[in-house]
Amino acid sequence: MAAFVLIHAELGLGGLILLVTLPGQKRYRKVYQAKSGYWYYNITGQDGRAERQVLYLEGYPSKEKILEHMKRLRTDYCILRCEMEGKQYEKRCD
C-alpha cells in the first residue's frame, strides 16, 4: 500500500499558507514557491546545511491556481496530493 505526501492549503487573513506532511512524520513543514516556479520545502542536509526538497503539485503551477480550485470548491481549506523529487513512500502492513 502506498503512502502519499500531502499538501495542506489554508486560506487565512495572511493569505494562502501551504504546509507539507510526510508519511511517518507528525511535523508540518512550510511550502514555498521559487521565482522560477517550482515548489519546495526546506530540509537540513546530512552535512548540516539547508537544502531544498522539490515537490511536484501536478495541475497547480501557482498559488493562483490553488486559490481558483479552492474558490470552485467554496472552501478555505483543502488537501492536495503531491510527489517529491527522488522519494517513494510505501506503507507496509505486516
UniProtKB/TrEMBL annotation:
Keywords: Membrane, Transmembrane, Transmembrane helix. The chain crosses the membrane at residues 6-24. The keyword Transmembrane helix applies. It comes from Flavonifractor plautii. This is Uncharacterized protein.
